[in-house]
Amino acid sequence: MNLHDVRVRPSEDQLPREQQLAWKIAEVAVDPVEVTPEVTEMVINRVIDNAAVAVASITRGPGVAARAQALDHPYEAGAAVFGVTGGYSPEWAAWANGVAVRELDYHDTFLAAEYSHPGDNIPPILAVAQHRGCDGVALVRGIATGYEIQVDLVKAISLHKHKIDHVAHLGPSAAAGIGTLLGLGTETVFQAIGQALHTTTATRQSRKGEISTWKAHAPAFAGKMAVEAVDRAMRGQTSPTPIYEGEDGVIAWLLDGKDAHYTVPLPAAGEAKRAILDTYTKEHSAEYQAQAWIDLARRLHHAHPELTDPANVGSITIHTSHHTHYVIGSGANDPQKYDPTASRETLDHSIPYIFTVALQDGAWHHVDSYAPERAARPDTVELWHRVRTLEDPEWTRRYHSLDPAEKAFGGRVEIILRDGSTITDEIAVADAHPLGARPFARADYVKKLRTLAAGVIEDAEIDRFLGLAERLPSLSPAEVRALNLVAQPGLLEAIPLPKGLF
After folding, report:
1. What does the mean pLDDT of the chain come to?
2. pTM: predicted TM-score of the whole model, two decimal places
3. Which of 66, 88, 176, 432 is most exposed, with the fewest beta carbons within 10 Å of its own?
4. Last residue of a domain, which of 401, 427, 453?
């Protein structure tokens, strides 16, 4: 990897384009290096994973609304929209599919200096591939680039520190991935990256307090903006420059300021794009930091069934990383995280709630575990309000470790019972993590799809999709256009589509 020093430069310096981060990213995007077999296999896994979580969302409010917007923008031989047939304008297909993929917070993740769901790159890249008639080789290359750029930015540049939403890294990564897909030149990709970043910086209020349905739309918006940015750049339109380093740029005014200094790792020329291998997917539908805690709670449920009754429990203290404590724990100081009437989007960002339900049920379900009647159960509310989180410096250090063998997203739980006894246990990574008890493999991705598609997609349609996805690199342009899942007859037709402007 090459390490690129990034800092704010005054306009009078006239920083050459070749030294700007956006140009360096563009150079990675246009590098014709081959995709390795293991990266190709993981791309296939994540295409299946995205489809699984998307079809589980197509009957939910945000997915229905976003699909309704896309259906108002038909385009002959355009991109596919999950659940339906026909072609649609690629930016709107990217929008609808992006919302469906993110709605359940159930796809892959990478965590470092910033947070991310790199699978959010797939909807815009796939939509453009279908629209432009790209083959499977080009699609795999584009997705590998999207993952690479997002992971590299996430390793180096913290957005949440300044309350900027993490999708600000997604706009540039998706634009870069589309550039690779289409074989665009460095200049064009450079301009697209600048526009994509400029239009996708927003505050983190979308993930604070009472979390709204916009949480699912935010990454889809970044993907849609990336598609539009590439379109404008291909038409010769330029972007703010230097977008990162400028004295009125993103870093100077939205991030660490004029004295900022970042070191961004990017593959050297000819070096394979392998960042997707550093990412990890979810077995459970919840914020990634909750994955390991669900697994630990399930374990405690079976080992200590007395813990399910609040009459036996005095307090539960979760010792964990800074991020878990302050974003999804009690350190966020969000009363909504303890509110049984809170939205699903809020509850899936509440580790006190998630740990309590998983502890009581010994299981986790993407719908049932968030049902209003489940959240309002009196014994759950009583136990839930006895759960607190604390930051532990050691777990914070492990969270930020660059050594995959010690990088951790869990912590230690201490449960004090009413009789004065104490139960403690800990977990470093989720069971499905590559270093976990049961690492996800191809069979798990396929099972996840079949489970989430039950009652939504017919078995024959699932088989057809898997037949395409599992030979992704060999797909023809026509087969790439068919890389979609259509809902069983009558399902979506029975759901009224909300009307807006279109």
Report:
1. 96
2. 0.93
3. 432
4. 427
